[in-house]
Write a structure and sequence with these properties.
The complex is a heterodimer of chains A (267) and B (397). Chain A is an alpha/beta fold. In chain A, 38% of the residues lie in helices and 21% in strands. Chain A contains nine helices and ten strands. A five-stranded mixed beta sheet of chain A has the order 3-2-1-4-5, with helices on both faces. Chain A has a five-stranded mixed beta sheet with strand order 8-7-6-9-10, sandwiched between helices. Chain B has a four-stranded parallel beta sheet with strand order 2-1-3-4, with helices on both faces. A four-stranded parallel beta sheet of chain B has the order 6-5-7-8, with helices on both faces. The chains are: A alpha/beta (267), B alpha/beta (397). The interface between A and B is medium-sized, with 26 and 19 residues.
Chain lengths: 267, 397
């Protein structure tokens, strides 16, 4: 019987199906929109067509308690750490760049969270920052990566705020800076914001939706920290970690009754 | 208030606690001759003396997330905390109409400056900046403090002519003794059975006492103690935490709820600390009750960032509280730009580090409306303790 992990993030809801050997068998991602339960239901229905999986589902992320299906919720940071540790089996520093937040996590040699830090109110340096700028420049993520490769020199983006950064970028275009150089500057701006949170001491692992959609950013991280890596399915790691984590819990909150007894039981 | 159902009581208390028009206080004033309302700011003010002078001491805790600041920002620099802005906004919008006087306890420069602004704006019939003693010797700090309290009583006497007799003040002291004792019982019950009532509900119930006559609040508290003494609800897999740093500017209720939703039971806090300031009873049959009120401040005050504490350091008192409440960890939650709280945190956190007590720290302001990051931080804190920590070790002081 498979188990389902859901990471209900502010921008996207990610689901993974995990087999009895704790391997990620399949994954699926939808926009979270305004209703986390709708997003979770889409993923549950998607997997329901092909697989038989058990309840409760294991959740993390901002909307982790906002689903109607029976669930056990987890901290996203701990779930993510657990998944990364499952891959590397050693201490490491994690920078997770998500839709609306950036997280730094220091994982020790036992796989435990030693330290963590998150950005505060502002979404500067997160996926939203990039999404907004991409929208204003009318450039897709794929084009972003291609443009960054053509950059000849870096343009430094000074504005912290997304709105001001856009004004600054428009000013740069008017002043003759090329789009590839500006895009490289945008990537480096995100990297600098993440370093402000971090005290990287060893192997650096980059996770979240951003490295998945913008692989160039990982190679830019490597310029500062050569021992940098971003595992496959980096966007789905927290969802996977939710399931792995469940094997280690000492106790669990009571599981709410199943409001959809016909759903997801493989009947 | 004749409500026997906890849900109804909490709903009524929530309504009272966040009634920025202070309806019940004004109503009370209109129901008798010579009644006055005296507003007081955090942290502590001995409400007994106003009660004995036929007055109602009303706690002013800011507009929280219920008041949009438009003009208040013009009165303070951007590096000043949020609460005084909302209090100024409330004053400008005439929320304090019907208040006769205002007490500004000496807790920080911001509150001192706010008292000056109230004087300039002509709010109420008197504005008193109440200097609390930082010398705890009875013949020095005690004499000074007693004089300060007498000044307040003189101001009230000018307004309503009520003489505070020994009998009246002893009676008022006994009512507030009951009040503190009932609140203490609520905290003690929640320590054992935190699932019977949420921290947010407790907050509403205690905060309602800041705007109600003490007799009515005692009735509410008696009912709540009776109701939560009975078994109800189911324990959840949550850690037990102490929240510290919020003694003046109040956290939004959403923040209190977020902490509990993220896997914690708040079993001790310093929200509304003034209601629990005096630890234990004040003498009720003294021939000189004003002296009893004075002595209680010198000898029975709790600890806080605004009190000079050589000889009885707050870090040791925090450790005592951690041990007494059997908490798994500490949450340092302070208002942004609160100098007293933020200057204390390194001292308190070092002590927690030395004693291997887990803690996290974050900032808020009274109108914070986005709790996503705080929820994730608290959730991680809670989960990490549940997954990997042994119980807080016994430590010697």
């Amino acid at each position: 019987m498979y188990r389902l992990g859901l990471d209900l993030g502010s921008s996207y809801t990610k689901g993974v199906l995990v087999d009895e050997n704790n391997r990620m068998t399949d994954s699926y991602c939808v926009r979270s929109g305004y209703n986390f339960n709708n997003a979770a239901t889409k993923i549950i229905n998607h997997f329901n067509e092909k697989y038989e999986f058990g309840y409760p589902v294991f959740t993390c992320g901002y909307g982790r308690e906002q689903i109607q299906a029976p669930f056990v919720s987890n901290s996203e940071l701990i779930a993510l750490s657990r998944a990364v540790y499952e891959i590397y089996r050693s201490s490491c520093s994690i920078i997770d760049i998500g839709g609306q937040d950036t997280k730094f996590i220091q994982v020790n040699a036992l796989g435990q969270v030693e330290k963590f830090k998150m950005n505060r109110k502002c979404a500067a340096g997160t996926g939203s920052f990039l999404e907004e700028i991409a929208f204003r420049l009318d450039v897709t993520p794929e084009e972003f990566t291609a443009f960054a490769k053509e950059a000849t020199e870096e343009v430094r983006i000074n504005s912290f705020c997304t709105v001001f950064a856009i004004s600054e970028i428009i000013g740069m275009i008017k002043n003759g800076s090329t789009l590839p150089n500006i895009i490289l500057g945008i990537y480096n701006s995100i990297i600098l914001r993440s370093f402000e949170l971090s005290l990287i001491v060893d192997h650096l692992v980059i996770t979240g939706g951003l490295p998945a959609m913008h692989p160039t950013i990982v190679s830019l991280f490597k310029k500062s920290y050569p021992d940098t890596d971003s595992p496959e399915h980096s966007q789905f790691l927290a969802a996977w970690g939710c399931v792995l984590l469940n094997n280690e819990r000492k106790s669990m909150d009571p599981i709410p009754p199943d409001p959809f007894p016909q759903q997801g039981k493989g009947e | 208030m004749h409500l026997n159902n906890l849900k109804e009581i909490v709903a009524r208390c929530e309504e009272l606690a966040f009634d920025l028009s202070f309806t019940r206080a004004r109503e009370w004033k209109s129901q008798g001759e010579g009644r006055i309302i005296v507003g007081h700011l955090p942290i502590y003010f001995p409400r007994e003396i106003i009660h004995a002078a036929n007055g109602l001491a009303v706690g002013i805790l800011g507009g929280g997330d219920k008041k949009l600041i438009i003009r208040g920002d013009a009165y303070y620099q951007s590096y000043i905390c949020h609460m005084p802005r909302s209090i100024i906004e409330l004053a400008i919008d005439k929320h304090f109409e019907g208040f006769d006087g205002f007490i500004f306890p000496s807790i920080c420069d911001v509150i001192r400056n706010l008292s000056g602004m109230f004087q300039i704006m002509g709010e109420g019939k008197f504005v008193k900046y109440l200097d609390f003693p930082q010398n705890f010797k009875p013949d020095i700090g005690g004499t000074f403090y007693r004089h300060e309290l007498q000044t307040v009583l003189d101001e009230v006497y000018k307004l309503n002519g009520v003489e505070v007799t020994t009998e009246r003040l002893n009676h008022s002291i006994s009512l507030f003794n009951i009040n503190r004792s009932l609140i203490s019982q609520l905290y003690n019950i929640r320590q054992e059975f935190p699932w019977r009532m949420t921290a947010a509900d407790l907050y509403h119930i205690v905060r309602a006492g800041y705007v109600l006559p003490v007799e009515e609040h005692n009735e509410i508290l008696t009912n709540v103690v009776r109701l939560i003494s009975q078994e109800s609800g189911d324990p959840m897999d949550k850690i037990r935490v102490l929240v510290i740093g919020a003694f003046c500017e109040q956290p939004p209720v959403g923040l209190i709820r977020t902490i509990e939703l993220a896997g914690c039971y708040i079993v001790e806090d310093d929200f509304l600390l003034g209601a629990r300031w005096i630890q234990g009873d004040i003498e009720t049959n003294s021939n000189d009750p004003l002296e009893s009120v004075t002595s209680a401040y010198l000898e029975k005050s709790t600890f806080s960032s605004s009190v000079f504490d050589v000889g009885n350091p707050k870090e040791v008192r925090l450790l005592n509280l951690i041990r007494y409440r059997k908490v798994d960890g500490v949450i340092f939650a302070a208002p942004s730009f609160c100098d007293p709280a933020l200057l204390d945190h390194p001292i308190l956190q070092k002590e927690c580090n030395d004693k291997n007590i887990r803690f996290i720290s974050f900032l808020y302001s009274e109108n914070t409306g986005q709790f996503k990051v705080i929820k994730e931080q608290v959730g991680t804190f809670s989960d990490s303790i549940k997954l990997w920590d042994e119980p807080v070790p016994a430590f010697s002081l």
